[in-house]
Design brief:
Blueprint (H helix, E strand, L loop, with lengths): L2 H4 L5 H11 L16 E5 L2 E8 L2 E6 L2 H4 L8 H11 L13 H13 L4 E7 L2 H18 L7 E5 L8 H5 L19 E3 L12 H14 L3 E6 L3 E2 L5 E2 L2 H14 L2 E5 L23 E4 L11 E6 H8 L16 H15 L3 H16 L8 E7 L2 E6 L5 H10 L2 E2 L6 E4 L7 H17 L1
Parallel strand pairs: 3-15, 5-6, 5-7, 7-10, 10-11
Antiparallel strand pairs: 1-2, 2-3, 4-12, 8-9, 11-12, 13-14, 14-16
Helix pairs in contact: 4-11, 5-11, 6-10, 8-9, 12-14, 13-14
Length: 439
């Protein structure tokens, strides 16, 4: 392509040809085998397509762009926050310098997250937030003269990202990272937590978990889980009682507790943070996705003063990690605006409204052929099949219903933006059901 051609508007066929030749999409082969839909623009909860998809010029977004766009698209408040910050500076290195958007964001996160989280390390993405969290835990014990405490325990069914240490604590069999067996650190895995948000804690599972922590406490640096909702590992919900059990076990046996709230943070489960369902706090907390309202990539790892002080006492009294775009002013500014926008409205009422709509709208899917389970929590609706979903067929069925969904494994699910209206939510539910039947 000549420089002149590179700056000319692309026809959809030309764009897709270049995409297939050069663009490596997530979880896909190269060159690609599936043709992606081309988005021209987005506003509210609608994606404007470059050409009709399923007979529609627009698709309602049922995914919040992988759970990030809480406020929908092209929101005037968030747009203005980016424009205002762009007039000041788009980026400045965070090593040796600081700036108001990042400082305000760190203080805001400390204020709204459960105590005693006090310190904030800003990162580029959710996976990196988990990398930093595990590095904090490992370095904490090394600084305290306990370098043998270098393994991590989690439960099966989890997902924590695609970089190396996060991959090591994803489900080793049901996840996407079996390819790396023998390369990743060998971590410890308990069984999947029993399902059911309202279920009682299973005594046998609790005893098995307690035994595992007790037997390996001498080598465990940390225990990491996704609280309440296991996301990309299976969209499973569990009781807050298991979080209380984990907190007790970690305190009893000298293990740091890490919560990965990259998917659940900022109200998705009905509480601002999922840990609040159990009225407790971890030692380290990972946030991402919705942090910037889906505008720019940014994540955060928070820790207690105990963890920070422990690291500072070591032979190397620093956390040796520093992303180039750490604390990016544009991302920090829009994150501040997004959090203020969320907390300045009745977000709990909106999430409850979405929960009620999902319960009603997905109820009929339980009787559809091939459906194993239907479950809803907060602004999360899940239809689980008794077989692997035909992703192409399910996606096309949703598009014909005027909705964008991204099924995976045996799941057709939705995490709509909080601004989704009742009529659009009903269409999303109909599309989920259609996709489940087609898939």
């Amino acid at each position: 392509m000549s420089p002149r051609e590179a700056n000319s508007p692309l026809t959809v066929p030309s764009l897709l040809a270049l995409d297939r030749a050069h663009v490596w999409h997530p979880y896909g082969p190269m060159p690609g085998t599936a043709t992606p839909y081309v988005v021209e623009s987005a506003a509210g909860v609608r994606l404007r397509m470059a050409e009709p998809v399923g007979g529609h010029d627009e698709l309602i977004d049922g995914m919040s762009s992988w759970w990030a766009a809480l406020h929908g698209y092209n929101h005037p408040v968030l747009n203005e926050a980016v424009r205002e910050q762009l007039g000041r500076m788009s980026h400045v290195m965070f090593g040796g310098l600081t700036h108001e958007p990042a400082v305000r964001l760190a203080a805001k996160l400390v204020e709204i997250t459960p105590e005693p989280l006090q310190h904030v390390f800003l990162t580029d993405s959710g996976s990196v937030a988990v990398e930093v969290a595990l590095k904090m835990c490992l370095q904490y014990w090394r600084s305290l003269g306990r370098p043998e405490k270098r393994r991590v325990l989690t439960w099966r069914g989890g997902y924590h990202g695609d970089t190396f240490h996060p991959m090591s604590v994803c489900d080793p069999e049901g996840g996407m990272h079996q390819l790396w067996e023998g390369v990743l650190p060998r971590q410890l895995f308990a069984g999947e937590p029993p399902t059911g948000f309202d279920a009682e804690v299973d005594p046998q599972y609790a005893a098995e978990l307690a035994d595992l922590v007790e037997r390996h406490a001498g080598e465990l640096a940390a225990l990491i889980v996704e609280p309440i909702v296991q996301g990309a590992g299976g969209m499973r919900f569990h009781s807050p009682g298991y979080l209380r059990l984990l907190r007790e076990l970690c305190d009893q046996h000298g293990v740091l507790l890490v919560f990965d709230e990259i998917a659940t943070g900022f109200g998705r489960t009905g509480r601002l943070f999922a840990a609040e369902h159990a009225n407790l706090s971890p030692d380290v907390l990972c946030l991402g996705k919705a942090l910037t309202g889906g505008y720019l990539t940014m994540a955060a790892t928070l820790c207690t003063g105990r963890v920070a002080d422990g690291i500072s006492q070591g032979e190397v009294p620093i956390l040796a990690h520093g992303p180039t775009f750490m604390g990016n002013p544009l991302a920090a500014a829009v994150a501040n605006a997004s959090i203020d926008l969320l907390l300045g409205q009745d977000w709990q009422g909106e999430v409850k409204r979405l929960e009620s709509g999902l319960l009603a709208g997905l109820a009929g899917a339980a009787d559809a052929p091939g459906v194993k389970d239907v479950r809803v929590l907060g602004a999360i609706g899940v239809v689980q099949l008794d077989h692997q979903v035909d992703m192409a067929a399910a996606t096309e069925a949703a598009a014909r219903a005027g909705v964008w969904l991204r099924p995976f494994r045996d799941l057709v699910y939705t995490m709509p933006p909080y601004v989704t209206g009742d009529d659009d939510l009903a269409r999303i539910c109909a599309a989920v059901t259609a996709a489940a039947v087609a898939g």
